[in-house]
Amino acid sequence: MALEDAKTQVDQAFTRESLRGLSFENAFGGATSFLRRRYSKDLAGVDLAVTGISFDQAVTHRPGTRFGPRAIREASTLQAFDAPYGWGYDPLAVLDVVDYGDMAFDYANTREVPGRIEAHVGGILDAGAAPITLGGDHSITLPILRAVAARRGPVALIQFDAHSDTWVDDDPDRIDHGTFLYKAIREGVVDPAASVAVGIRTDNPDTMGVTILDAPMVHREGVGAVLARIRAVVGDRPVYVTFDIDALDPAFAPGTGTPVWGGLASWQAAALLRGLAGVDLIGGDVVEVSPPYDTTGATAIAGAHVALELIALFGWTRR
Fold it and tell me: Is this model's pTM higher than 0.90 or not?
């Protein structure tokens, strides 16, 4: 296939015959599934299911991450023509990937949402696929981790973020984007001794044993040193990656609810994700993309690139 196929290809989200391969329909038209993957609720034989959780509830400053999945999908139409640059292989040629669509929920019944997320992701896992989730605020990661840990045991976590998200929260009824990791560790679904938070640049009195590789360290010591530390902590454990888009500096991703200056540049995030090649990725998410605060679309573009890098990471050991 080539760009000339745009003359005949359209709506590949519904019309494509194979779960593999690139797509060449016009970026500005057609149904905007992630990377023009086929929309499907049938996970038989599927390696990866991309799914959206369009939920935000009580972010610190600027709401709107419920629109993140839609914006990330639209941005991903720019990436559907080529394999991700620099990987040396095409993950869409070796993996069966579908867009599983968004999770349904009652917006007026907020307390029901975490349970629905856990069941939604659990269904993906039980079908034999791995989840790549587009959020949504960072509260969605807690029930995802519950679903993964219920099937794989306590999770080794690599978290890209401006905030460690381990503020104290012992109220089981609270749904908070800033305390997902506190609860995950308290519940035993995340193993803090095998977990790393990268890009942190806000104070927190207790990071609960998670190794903190803050943004100044990344800037000072470089990508190679940070990757060595990550690998030393995670080891050969199966790992889940959660990427809060505010790990990036607001210059690169202004469309987020909690922007903090001094963050990662997009090239640093790309190099760090690429440098994780070989880890046993069991799932991942990109959260906190809030498109109403970025009319350029740069934040959604960054989110789409993160999601594609996660797909490439997953496929690296399966190529």
Answer: yes
Is 137 annotated as contributing to ligand binding? no
Q: How confident is the model at residue 2 (pLDDT cuts 50, 70, 90)?
A: low
Can you give the length of the chain in residues?
319
244 annotated binding-site participant = yes
Based on DSSP, count helices (H) and strands (E) in the chain, helices before strands: 10, 8
Q: Is 40 helix (H, G, I), strand (E, B) or coil?
A: coil
Could you give the strand order of the β-sheet that contains 196-198, starting from the edge strand earlier in sequence? Answer: 97-102, 48-53, 130-135, 280-287, 238-244, 156-160, 196-198, 211-213
Q: How many CB atoms lie within 10 A of CB 60?
A: 13
| pLDDT at position 39 over 90 | yes
61 is in an annotated binding site: no
Q: What is the DSSP string of 191-218?
A: -GGG-EEES--S--S--TTPEEE-HHHH
Task: Delineate the domains of the chain, giving CATH numbers in brackets.
Answer: 1-317 (3.40.800.10)
